Amino acid sequence: MKKSNVGFLLLTVFVLTFLFPATGLSKEKKEDFETPSHVLTISKENTFPNATEDQEVIEPSELTQELMDGLKIKIENPDLIKMLNESTINPSPIALGYRGMVFIGRWPLNYESLETTINWEYQQINKNELNNLGGESDQKINYVQQEEKEVKGALTNKIANPDDIKSMMLIKSKEKTKLPLAYHTVIGKNTKKDNSYAVPTDKHATLDSYAPAVNEKGQVTFGEVYIQLKGSKKSLVVKNVTKQGIGAWIPIQDHVSFSYNVK
User: Fold this and answer.
1) pLDDT at 96
2) Which InterPro entries match (predicted)?
């Protein structure tokens, strides 16, 4: 290739890169967790008082933080951090030549969130109907919960230490979505909302209501955790590290999605 052609090609690439720096290069997916207009909160109207599923924040002690800082693998499991906080490790300063390994179990160490989406019609919870066939004027239909409805979330596949993993997934999902999430929520009977929909004459209307939920997908890192003692020094050792994919459905507490249909 002639030098002039090479120079022209380089100039073209530079100009295109300058003008369209992000075109076709970015694979980052923007996640939108904004609540749509047809989804309303019922936290004040719900006749069943749901308990907020707050996750206990476990802060590592000074010793636990020191032990975790020596690892390349992140430890985020609150139960493991709590157990390390409660452990007493005091090697003798004169224990020259002493060596020991204490096995404290195989643990889920951390959860990495890879995809978080929302199904605003995760589970139908109610149906209101109004028949205005033969009516002389427009009428209105409102949301009234006919029966108490329980909505449960769950992991989508089997995995060891499910409770620890559900806890870590809930923490990550709440951080990402900023929504009131819980694996269990209830919509009480006779819960009402002021939103109304016009039903014209000679029409039949249905107002379907749904409980929304977050679909969380990611990866759990497992490892065998040991406390290693060498003389007066102590450290954490993680062996036989594996990763496993996992998913979960986590309902959005005290929110209802509405779908209005007229025929």
Assistant:
1) 54
2) YfkD (IPR025548)
